[in-house]
């Protein structure tokens, strides 16, 4: 195909249109240059990467076009020279500049030369500088090929080179004659370089133009795809408007917008005196970071983090609203850029390097923009606008405070006057209020709105639908909604809803109201991100379709994207049936839009038995009433909604998030002052709204509550009363707040009981972290005594004056509620309390620290604790932490009860287990139906869910009594939801039973269940169900099998091979679980030596292909759990990672697994302090059915016993390592270690010394000989570490640890390979 004439867009700079943009524009740019800038010699300078990709094409085009132009004008053919330099910043040097100049001179280049700089910013800066000084300046043309060069470095005429001391100190202003931006060249750019450039694009929109920013916000996916997954249906795609994809057009539009801003600024401030400084937004702090981490992070990546930090400074100063900070953050993240130094992305590149606040301030001190020592930073005052037309003066204190990762909260000054504070709004109410006010008539001022992803998406979508116009007042505190009374139009592009679930559900019905436009065939399209495209919407779509609307699934059935056909009748009305056992959001969606039904009033009939989340439906109805529409509730879950339009109240106060409201109220309680929360009161439907009355009042506070406000006055400091027992079932999230108050309670009579017992909060073990464990741990650091029980926590009150703030601060476990609760306590703790990871409050209250100071009168300062230490923190993170042992070891013939999520494969795996073990199979559900002569759905319809669950528990108990041994029983997924069932499992385990939890990754389960349309869908997301049940499953099982079917989509059907593999692994696992121990592990004397290979990888996944080669010659594989690290790409916890490693190992090798968690003092990496974590992991290893488990005999005996109480059929290796080499083999001390090891009745003893002399090896061999003779059946591994000790490795005969040439590191100093040992043995005649 011949090259089409490309479509060109132009931007003018310094008064002329010299910037041209398009796709595939080589021919165009050459024709333009050769025609307008005649020269005898043209030189293109580029780098090696671009040479490979583009130079041939450029040369061919040059020769074609130069002939064309010369023959047309009758002039001589010009020559083309090319010069290629190595890529990278190092080339921007004096040396390379000189090299290029020498080449030009050697080629006889004169003033009559034009230079093309084809490349990224490096080429542009360097070649531009060459052109500026060669022959006192020759013309040059920029062909920027990176996004950064296109929008930034090629524009403005700044050219420069680096010196060893600094970046860009030598250069000149030299304007290019032309800048040709060929966007198709971005398609070959590495992803990271493209994303890097996006930082500048976002920056420009953020300071300049809200509309451009909105394009970026909504277009992230399309823009990334345009570059990273380009469509190539035709040659030269995008060159002409006909062949240009919408994504390409959008890309062009955003790049051009950025180019235009930079050009405008350059034009008005060419030599950088004022306005040009604005382009440095994000660059003050960005450069400071860059100064410390170059070249590990790229410029744009540092600027991205810098933008957020500088926006946070603006927010802290009160210039910028949280809405804007939130939008900026989300937008930056949407393109794959980091927003903090703690991002996994950043850690990936800079490793453990820590940039301290002092270091950053040091670099900031020399920032070009400063005036003297005064720091100057660009302050945003909104999206698309800045506070001043130049950078603003900012004090060091403020910068430090924002940069610090931790904060110190000091005691609050006493006797502060009453304060009023509106916590962030409730998310459910915010979303409803937005829809109501938009559909309503007139203007409504919404205050207290939550600023979140969801509400942002909702706002943007309602704007695009023309449902209303919005403006912010009071620095983002008030949203003014001018409602259009239900009138809307089809948006000119699709509604992109990200992953905002509520918005998707509500807007589906809203879109049905939209009438046809004058353009025939135009439709409304609702879409979202990949995750959104899996979330269900079918019941709502079905109900609307049945009512005469037309909604089409554009990709997968039952999910977004949806195409909504407009009808002039909008929503028809009449009776609408809706399955309401799934999600109350469907119900609310129809309720909210129902008044706008055109033909007749809506009667909404909720079908499907139990209605889920009635309080949310009540909330919708109550709010509709506030907007003038009264819903009539009829019997049988039926609602009648009158036709009409909402009438907007002048003001609407969005109710606070009730859990958040507990913090300011608790501060009043603990400091003996008064605080009013004006946006939550007795009328609230949120459970946590009961906190003031049910917790604070009995503790001695005065609580005054109206329907919509709450005022709390605390008693004098130090006189809060303990609560002997408080059930917080209805407000579980508030237990953390209650716990810190209980920590400072005092009994009303001296010497009285000072204990608060909080129950009903077991679910808090499986929240962001194990919150009960976290509170116990952190309160303990202050000297507060606590304990836990099944269902809650017990807190002993403590005298305030003697509370001690922890030296290294409160650890927040990345949990916002932990952070905010301890900041409440900190208001009275003497001396100032450090709260680490202060950023975690962003999940629900991003401005908490600002509000604490500016609105609540608290005092906070910054602190830099240095790099966070590398600790696993296993104990609190994991919900399985220190579960008390459930009793005796499992009996090998015990009936195996299989539990787990639906979709994990319980039935298939259960049947398989039954078959392999030759046992009968039972299924609780089938037994239920058989025994009661009904189907489960019928039973539920008739008696409800609670009755079903109780009955299910009974069936379980019956089955276990009937078949205590030699059976396999599979249970329904929800069985653990019932306390009596959980009890039955625990009792069964205590009797020696086997409860096996089948685990499959939630992603896989979702994929599998979504495919299977015959199963009814869950009312809540699978993830939520898992989050709730995970802890219960763990609590109820004593074995766990992880189905590691990486690519396993369907259980039965197409993945037969995968499935066969899973089955054979399961069979092996079952052998460990039910197997009988071998009587002797050792072969007869003189048999060949055996080896185990130590795997020292942080993650074995990448080495699985080499595993067969690695383990060749070994008899056992050791998994060094202490060396594992959760990889970047893995979303689960550390425990999940370990579980996966075990199952992957089992899947890829038949060799038995030796599972080891080696402590630091024993030569490993596991922190010695973290005994709890180690014990948990060891117990997990037993649950995962490993063949061998290593236990360090140095652990406290109680902990060893706890592990051993579960040993089942796993072989135990009792180990001891003398890393310092302080114990001789022939000493009593070594004998004592042997005895100690023996005392735990292990299956193998492993004693490791450190050789100081060669002789130690013989002493070691003698030790072995002595004990082997005595304890024939107890195999002993005995050898020496260190180079001197290698002989002992050769002499040891049983399970010698070995390494392999392919291993990254040896597991121990002096380790040999199996091959080396075998050769050595041969050499010495063994
Ligand atoms: N003059 C200014 O106003 C200004 C402004 C900002 C930055 N800069 C300078 O820009 C430089 C950084 O520029 P950069 O980020 O473009 O880096 P770069 O020039 O080093 O290019 C990045 C990498 O991408 C490769 N590459 C470029 N285009 C490609 C393409 N189309 N396909 C495949 N690979 C491609 C390059 O070979 C290089 O390896 C710095 O030296 C900085 O000082 C100058
Ligand atoms: Zn920059």
Automatic annotation (TrEMBL):
E.C. no: 2.5.1.19
Domain 3-dehydroquinate synthase N-terminal: 83-195
First-level EC class: transferase
Pfam families with a match to the protein in the record: DHQ_synthase, DHQS_C, DHquinase_I, EPSP_synthase, SKI
Residues covered by the Enolpyruvate transferase domain: 421-852
Ranges where the 3-dehydroquinate synthase C-terminal domain occurs: 197-370
Localization in the cell: Cytoplasm
One term of GO molecular function: 3-dehydroquinate dehydratase activity
Cellular component terms per the entry's GO annotation: cytoplasm
Biological or metabolic pathway of the protein: Metabolic intermediate biosynthesis; chorismate biosynthesis; chorismate from D-erythrose 4-phosphate and phosphoenolpyruvate: step 6/7; Metabolic intermediate biosynthesis; chorismate biosynthesis; chorismate from D-erythrose 4-phosphate and phosphoenolpyruvate: step 5/7
Principal subcellular localisation of the protein: cytoplasm
UniProt entry keywords in alphabetical sequence: Amino-acid biosynthesis, Aromatic amino acid biosynthesis, ATP-binding, Cytoplasm, Kinase, Lyase, Metal-binding, Multifunctional enzyme, NADP, Nucleotide-binding, Oxidoreductase, Transferase, Zinc
Cofactor(s) demanded: Zn(2+)
GO process annotations (BP): amino acid biosynthetic process; aromatic amino acid family biosynthetic process; chorismate biosynthetic process
Reactions catalysed according to its record: 3-phosphoshikimate + phosphoenolpyruvate = 5-O-(1-carboxyvinyl)-3-phosphoshikimate + phosphate; shikimate + ATP = 3-phosphoshikimate + ADP + H(+)
Function: The AROM polypeptide catalyzes 5 consecutive enzymatic reactions in prechorismate polyaromatic amino acid biosynthesis.
Cross-referenced NCBIfam families: aroA, aroB, aroD
Family membership noted in the UniProt record: Belongs to the EPSP synthase family.
HAMAP family, A to Z: EPSP_synth, Shikimate_kinase
Name used for this protein in its record: 3-phosphoshikimate 1-carboxyvinyltransferase
Taxonomic lineage: Eukaryota, Fungi, Fungi incertae sedis, Mucoromycota, Mortierellomycotina
């Amino acid at each position: 195909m011949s090259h089409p004439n490309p479509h060109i867009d132009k931007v003018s700079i310094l008064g002329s249109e010299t910037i041209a943009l398009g796709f595939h524009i080589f021919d165009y740019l050459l024709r333009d240059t050769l025609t307008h800038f005649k020269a005898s010699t043209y030189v293109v300078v580029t780098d090696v990467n671009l040479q490979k990709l583009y130079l041939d094409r450029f040369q061919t085009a040059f020769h074609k076009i130069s002939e064309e132009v010369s023959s047309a004008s009758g002039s001589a053919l010009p020559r083309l020279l090319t010069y290629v330099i190595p890529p990278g910043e190092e080339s921007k040097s004096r040396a390379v500049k000189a090299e290029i100049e020498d080449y030009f001179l050697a080629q006889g280049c004169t003033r009559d030369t034009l230079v093309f700089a084809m490349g990224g910013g490096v080429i542009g800066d360097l070649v531009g500088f060459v052109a500026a000084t060669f022959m006192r300046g020759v013309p040059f043309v920029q062909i920027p090929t990176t996004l950064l060069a296109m929008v930034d470095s090629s524009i403005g005429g700044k050219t420069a080179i680096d010196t060893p001391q600094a970046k860009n100190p030598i250069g000149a202003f030299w304007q290019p004659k032309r800048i040709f931006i060929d966007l198709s060249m971005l398609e070959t750019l590495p992803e990271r370089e493209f994303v890097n450039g996006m930082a500048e694009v976002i920056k420009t929109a953020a300071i300049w133009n809200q509309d451009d920013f909105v394009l970026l916000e909504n277009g992230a996916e399309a823009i990334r795809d345009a570059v990273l997954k380009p469509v190539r249906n035709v040659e030269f795609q995008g060159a002409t408007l006909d062949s240009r994809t919408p994504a390409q057009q959008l890309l062009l539009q955003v790049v051009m917008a950025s180019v235009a801003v930079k050009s405008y600024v350059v034009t008005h401030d060419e030599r950088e005196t004022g306005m040009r400084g604005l382009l440095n937004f994000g660059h003050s702090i960005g450069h400071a970071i860059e100064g410390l981490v170059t070249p590990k992070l790229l410029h744009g990546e540092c600027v991205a983090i810098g933008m957020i930090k500088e926006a946070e400074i603006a927010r802290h100063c009160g210039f910028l609203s949280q809405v804007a900070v939130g939008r900026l953050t989300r937008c930056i993240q949407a393109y794959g850029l980091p927003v903090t130094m703690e991002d996994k992305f950043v850690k990936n590149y800079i490793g453990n390097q820590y940039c301290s606040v002092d270091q950053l301030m040091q670099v900031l001190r020399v920032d070009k923009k400063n005036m003297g020592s005064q720091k100057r930073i660009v302050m945003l005052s909104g999206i698309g606008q800045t506070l001043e037309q130049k950078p603003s003066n900012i004090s060091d204190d403020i910068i430090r405070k924002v940069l610090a990762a931790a904060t110190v909260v000091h005691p609050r000054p006493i006797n502060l006057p009453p304060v009023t504070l509106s916590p962030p709004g409730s998310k459910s109410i915010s979303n409803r209020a937005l829809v109501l006010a938009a559909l309503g008539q007139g203007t409504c001022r919404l205050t207290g709105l939550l600023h979140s992803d969801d509400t942002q998406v909702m706002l943007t979508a309602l704007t695009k639908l023309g449902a209303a116009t919005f403006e912010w007042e009071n620095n983002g505190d008030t949203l003014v909604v001018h409602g259009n009374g239900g009138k809307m139009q089809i948006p000119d592009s699709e509604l992109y809803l990200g992953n905002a679930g509520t918005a998707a559900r509500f807007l589906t019905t809203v879109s049905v109201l939209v009438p046809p436009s004058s353009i025939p065939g135009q439709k409304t399209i609702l879409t979202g991100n990949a995750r959104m495209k899996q979330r269900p919407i079918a019941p709502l779509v079905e109900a609307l379709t049945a009512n005469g609307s037309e909604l089409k699934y554009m990709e997968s059935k039952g999910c977004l994207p949806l195409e909504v056909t407009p009808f002039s009748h909008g929503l028809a009305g009449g009776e609408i049936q809706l399955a309401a056992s799934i999600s109350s959001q469907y119900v609310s969606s129809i309720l909210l839009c129902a008044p706008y039904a055109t033909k007749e009033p809506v009667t909404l009939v909720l079908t499907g038995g139990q209605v889920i989340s009635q309080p949310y439906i009540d909330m919708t109805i109550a709010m509709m009433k506030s907007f003038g529409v009264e819903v009539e509730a009829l019997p049988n879950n039926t609602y009648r909604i009158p036709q009409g339009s909402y009438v907007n109240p002048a003001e609407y106060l969005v109710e606070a998030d009730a859990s958040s409201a507990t913090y300011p109220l608790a501060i009043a309680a603990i400091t003996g002052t008064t605080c009013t929360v004006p946006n939550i009161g007795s009328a609230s439907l949120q459970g946590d709204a009961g906190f003031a009355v049910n917790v604070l009042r009995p503790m001695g506070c005065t609580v005054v509550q109206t329907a919509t406000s709450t005022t709390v006055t605390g008693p004098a400091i130090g006189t809060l009363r303990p609560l002997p027992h408080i059930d917080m079932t209805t407000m579980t999230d508030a237990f953390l707040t209650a716990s810190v108050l209980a920590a400072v309670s005092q009994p009303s009579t001296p010497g009285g009981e000072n204990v608060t017992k909080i129950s009903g909060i077991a679910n808090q073990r499986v929240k962001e972290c194990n919150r009960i464990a976290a509170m116990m741990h952190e309160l303990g650091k202050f000297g507060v005594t606590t304990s836990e029980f099944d269902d809650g926590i017990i807190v002993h009150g403590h005298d305030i004056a003697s509370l001690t703030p922890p030296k290294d601060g409160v650890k927040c476990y990345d949990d916002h509620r932990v952070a905010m609760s301890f900041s409440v306590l900190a208001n009275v703790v003497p001396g100032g309390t450090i709260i680490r990871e202060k950023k975690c409050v962003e999940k629900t209250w991003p401005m908490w620290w600002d509000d604490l100071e500016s609105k609540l009168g608290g005092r906070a300062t910054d602190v830099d604790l240095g790099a966070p230490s590398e600790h696993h923190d296993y104990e609190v993170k994991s919900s399985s932490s220190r579960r008390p042992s459930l009793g005796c070891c499992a009996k090998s013939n015990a009936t195996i009860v299989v539990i787990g999520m639906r979709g994990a494969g319980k039935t298939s795996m259960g049947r398989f287990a039954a078959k392999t073990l030759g046992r009968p199979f039972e299924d609780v559900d089938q037994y239920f139906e058989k025994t009661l002569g009904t189907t489960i759905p019928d039973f539920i319809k008739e008696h409800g869910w609670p009755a079903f669950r109780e009955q299910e528990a009974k069936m379980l108990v019956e089955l276990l009594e009937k078949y205590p041994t030699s059976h396999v029983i599979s249970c329904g997924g929800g069985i653990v939801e019932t306390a009596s069932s959980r009890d039955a499992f625990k009792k069964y385990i205590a009797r020696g039973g086997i409860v096996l939890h089948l685990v499959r990754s939630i992603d896989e389960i979702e994929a599998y269940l979504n495919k299977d349309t015959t199963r009814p869908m869950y009312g809540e997301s699978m993830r939520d169900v898992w989050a709730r049940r995970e802890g219960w499953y763990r609590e109820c099982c004593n074995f766990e099998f992880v189905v590691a079917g990486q690519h396993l989509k369907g259980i039965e059907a197409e993945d037969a091979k995968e499935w066969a593999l899973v089955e054979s692994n399961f069979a092996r696992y079952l052998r460990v679980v039910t197997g009988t121990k071998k009587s002797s592990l050792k072969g007869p004397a003189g048999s060949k030596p055996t080896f185990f290979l130590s795997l020292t990888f942080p993650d074995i996944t990448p080495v699985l292909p080499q595993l067969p080669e690695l383990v060749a010659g070994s008899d056992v594989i050791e998994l060094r759990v202490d060396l594992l690290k959760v990889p970047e790409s893995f979303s689960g916890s550390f425990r999940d990672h370990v579980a996966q490693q075990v199952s992957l190992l089992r899947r890829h090798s038949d060799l038995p697994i030796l599972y080891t968690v080696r402590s630091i003092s024993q030569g490993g990496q596991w922190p010695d302090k973290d005994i709890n974590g180690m014990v948990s992991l060891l117990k997990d290893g037993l649950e995962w059915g490993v063949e061998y488990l290593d236990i360090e005999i140095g652990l406290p005996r109680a902990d060893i016993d706890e592990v051993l109480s579960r040993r089942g059929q796993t072989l135990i290796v009792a180990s001891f390592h003398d890393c310092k080499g302080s114990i001789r083999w022939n000493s009593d001390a070594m004998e004592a270690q042997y005895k100690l090891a023996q005392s735990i009745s292990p299956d193998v003893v492993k004693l490791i010394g450190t050789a100081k002399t060669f002789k130690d090896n013989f002493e070691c061999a003698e030790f072995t000989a002595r004990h082997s003779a005595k304890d024939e059946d107890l195999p002993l591994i005995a050898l020496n570490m260190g180079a001197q000790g290698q002989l002992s490795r050769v002499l040891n005969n049983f399970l010698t640890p070995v390494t392999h040439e392919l291993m990254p590191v040896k597991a121990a100093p002096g380790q040999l390979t199996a091959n080396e040992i075998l050769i050595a043995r041969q050499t010495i005649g063994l």
